[in-house]
Amino acid sequence: MTVWAISDLHLAFGNPERRDRYAGRWRDHAARIEQAWREAVRPEDLVLLPGDLSTARNHREVQPDLEWLGALPGIKVLAPGNHDRWWNSAAPVRKILRRRMIAVDGDAAAVDGLVVCGARGAPAPSDRCSCADRHVADRELGVLESALEHASRLRADRDTPLFVLWHFPPFDAHRRAGPWVDRFEQAGVTACVYGHLHIEAQWSLAVQGSIRGVRYYCVAADAIGFRPVRIDGPPG
Predict the structure, then answer these.
(1) Closest C-alpha to 81, from 104, 59, 47, 111
(2) At residue 231, does pLDDT exceed 70?
(3) Structural domain span for residue 153
(4) Using CA atoms, how far apart are residues 43 and 78, in angstroms rounded to an integer?
(5) Cα separation, 74 vs 70, whole angstroms
(6) Are 104 and 90 within 8 A, CB to CB?
(7) Of 58, 134, 197, 203, which is most buried, counting CB atoms within 10 Å of its CB?
(8) pLDDT-based confidence at residue 236 (cuts at 50, 70, 90)
(9) What is the distance between the alpha carbons of residues 215 and 80, in angstroms, rounded to a whole number?
């Protein structure tokens, strides 16, 4: 089983939106993702999707997007992003997922000898952030604690690979770690996959690679050329 990741698909089959109005690189992006996905991913592989799957506003609108995703090869693990308005909580979302789709949000799942957990996450707080922003960061840190605690019960030992889906960059624009980074390290996380970044200047600043034992991958779809990235080995 190979592990892949891609974030920020921003699908809109049930709620049509021209994504290329934001940048030309988004033209026909769903078709390009599908082609690259089918070329790379085998049915037995695992694909991690850390948020912003769909622009849908509710469970009805998201159905065509889930149908499209369900038709692609691989086992898919999803966590929410800030634009996933259709995602209310993991329990009701699980009821509408297609076969071989798994939702994680404050909890974890074991898949073929590895463990995946996830949460929506939050931007790394800075000295200038508002009280509301700090409240959101504290809340998401609590969600992460629940996810990591569940993951610890599913892991056979610390050698069992543990992947975290965290939609927002774990570090701020100045490469300063958010409070969750310490928890990743303490928990023995193997890799954290995130997205959210859609400005080209942000991609070169995104923290990637191995830092104190944890591998970080920015997998926002446009940042990686709309092709899933393999993450079950050292970063390229």
Answers:
(1) 104
(2) yes
(3) 3-230
(4) 17
(5) 9
(6) yes
(7) 197
(8) very low
(9) 21
CA distance 54 to 76: 15
Is 137 domain-assigned? yes
- The amino acid occupying position 223 is A
In a domain, 38, yes or no: yes
Which of 40, 34, 35 shows the shortest CA–CA distance to 230?
40
In a domain, 129, yes or no: yes
Q: Would you state the structure tokens that stand for residue 125, as one six-digit string?
A: 């707080």
> In sequence order, what E strands does 73-187 have?
75-79, 101-103, 107-111, 114-119, 162-166
Position 98 pLDDT exceeds 90 = yes
In a domain, 32, yes or no: yes
DSSP per position, 61-82: HHHHHHHHHHTSSSEEEEE--T
Q: Determine the Cα–Cα distance for residues 137 and 180; give it in Å rounded to an integer.
A: 9
Sheet of strand 229-230: strand arrangement: 101-103, 75-79, 46-50, 3-5, 229-230
Give the count of beta carbons closer than 10 Å to the beta carbon of residue 107.
19
> pLDDT tens across 10-21, in order?
999 987 776 766
Q: What is the CATH number of the domain that holds 47?
A: 3.60.21.10
Domain tally for the chain?
1
Q: What is the pLDDT of residues 114-150, one digit of tens each?
A: 999 999 999 988 766 676 778 899 999 999 999 999 9
